[in-house]
Sequence to fold (413 residues):
Amino acid sequence: MSQQSKMDLDITNCSRGLWLVKVPKYLGDKWADCAGHDVGKLKITKVPGKPPTITFKSSEHTLKDGKIPREHKVIYHSLKEMTLGVLSEPDLGSSSSDAAVSETQQLSFEGQVIHKLECQPVVDDYYINQKREAVKKAAQSLHTVKLIDRPLNGYKPISHHKHNVYLEQKKKAEGKTIRDDKDKVMELLFAAFEKHHRGLWLVKVPKYLGDKWADCAGHDVGKLKITKVPGKHPTITFKSSEHTLKDGKIPREHKVISHCLKEMTLGVLSEPDLGSSSSDAAVSETQQLSFEGQVIHKLECQPVVDDYINQKREAVKKAAQSLHTKKKAEGKTIRDDKDKVMELLFAAFEKHQYYNIKDLHKITRQPITYLKEILKDLCNYNVKNPHKNMWELKPEYRHYKLAEKAVENSMYD
Fold:
């Protein structure tokens, strides 16, 4: 069902008669550039028994660059049985969308169209010269041929990556470690050994349940029920809380199955949470790790079959609908500007030396045929092992060795 909206209409100027005039694009652009100035004069010559003759002569300010005709003739067109009016809306700038303006802002009725006209240039010597110059300019080639004596490298990949610069700066900032107070160090050691004696349960849970627990931070996620039977292994069940089941999209009950550890000895290490901005490599190399304890039970949480089947059926339907919507939204890939694609390729080759065509297609999001045309100009295709069917930059676009030599020379100097 379509939505309807009510808006106010200002009819203060409804009695005005307006002229609807069609002007050439170049003349309209000139008028837009001359805001606040006179753009020309309109001359109306009345002849008894005939329609009036109308001519338009541009002002000196409009003709300051001399690239448009000086005079134009205005031709009448019949309105026949048409009734036309003009509505205006407030100017909110380029950032506002047309839909938002049309639904929320007030419209004004400026008047009724009483004449429909068209502005055409007068075909004289001045106009013919202008057209000749325009045709000559359009016929000139946008590309020129120039003889060069050496390869021209417009793009120069660098070998000194940001990650290496970051690690070097961090090492300089940290400097050497400093001895702390002995009592403080002993407290840290005792706290670590207390954790070492803790017994932990390693539990594997379904992904949907883990996501729910992450969303319920600070709340109870459920209750664990352990039933002990003499001579048998204890039966463990998990029942989700009402807060976890508020949207009703996961099974209510799960059974917990025990797995034998055999001769495995497992421990749990933890690292500080630095947020999503820090990379895994940076955390593992520079941050302090903590030993939380030893794993004494290895368990797996599985849903009860009846609830699980219904849940999986709904998930498969939802996934099929989202995949169909995604394929419609993506459509066909569109060719980008060649220079922009080259920038993406050189940025990729700064990270790795070899790529296959599928990876480059994912990075650039360009049609395969168009991408291969650009790759033939920039890269070599390997047909032998160990890098068979892979692309790499041509020698004239590689600067790693030159950059390394320059660094070595500067060190010796």
